[in-house]
Every structure is written in C-alpha cells, then in structure tokens.
Specification:
186 residues; Gyrase A, domain 2; 2 domains; two-stranded antiparallel ribbon; 57% helix
Amino acid sequence: MIKETVAQARIRMGKALEDFRHELAGLRTGRASTALLENIRVDYYGTPTPLNQVATLGVPEPTMLTVQPWDASLLGAIDKAIRSSDLGLNPMNDGKVLRVPVPALTEERRKELVKHLHKVLENHRTAVRNIRRDSNDEMKKLFKDKKISEDDEKRGLEDMQKLTDEFIGKIEAQGTAKEKEIIELH
C-alpha cells in the first residue's frame, strides 16, 4: 500500500516537473526558439487555437522566427496575437509569412524574466510539497485505520521526504540553469 502511494506521488511529481519544463521553454532568453510562441493562441474561426496548429514555425537564424500560416487569411490574427502577448515581439508581415525578430533582452527585461522565473519556480515547489502532504495524509490514514504498522508508516514518510527532496532538487537545478541563461549576455 505504501509503495503504491509513493509510486502515485512519483507520477504526480513527474507531471509537476514536466509542467515546469514546459513553462521554462516559453521564457525568453534572447535566442529565437519556437517554444517562445507555444503558449500563443490565435482566434481561428471563433476558437482560440494554439499557433503551432494553424501555422508552420521556423527558426531561420538565431535572432529570427518565422510563422507561415496554412491559411493566408490568418496572417492578421496571428500578427495581433503575437503583438498582444507579453513577449515584447513585433512581427513583420510580408503577405505570406510573418518574420518575428527576437530583440536582445534589456537589463530591465532580464530582471523581470528572472522575477517571473522565481514565481514559476515557487509555484512548482509548492505543487511538489502539496503532493507530499497528500501522500503523507494518506499514509497516516492507513496507519490510523490499522492497515499498516507504525514502522511502515515511518518508512513511508521517509521515502516521501526523499522523493520530495529529489524532485525539488531537479526543479531548482533547472530553474538555476534557466536563470543563468536569461542573465548571460549573448
């Protein structure tokens, strides 16, 4: 029963880690990456649709992104969606393709991104801790209902703490690497 609880917690913590990686991919670092545009939604016949489902995204050079819609009538909507995002990007429309220059980050913008990164990092740390709390509560309930022994409960709680430390360590390591990437001047 305890192994099952710990295994479930590992799966949930893995999802939290994966979500953190996904959020990091969308943070700008001064280099062009199609991941920057991943969270942008375009109004496609009244439905907010992910940009990569209505256009081909490309990185022809380190400071340029290209967006080629499959339906040319979407150029205006895509342009508007990119401009209204908080990424600070200004696409250029040539009638067929949007060219999106990725400007170098200013010192002020870097500080804002690092602040945002810390917020995202703390949210995911909290998510992992909440998973630990839920699992610990489950183990305490099993002990209270006399389904496991006190030693099993203690061992289970220790395993949960080790698992929590492992995942928080992974999240922090990735956060630190991303912060270094944001701060570095290119």
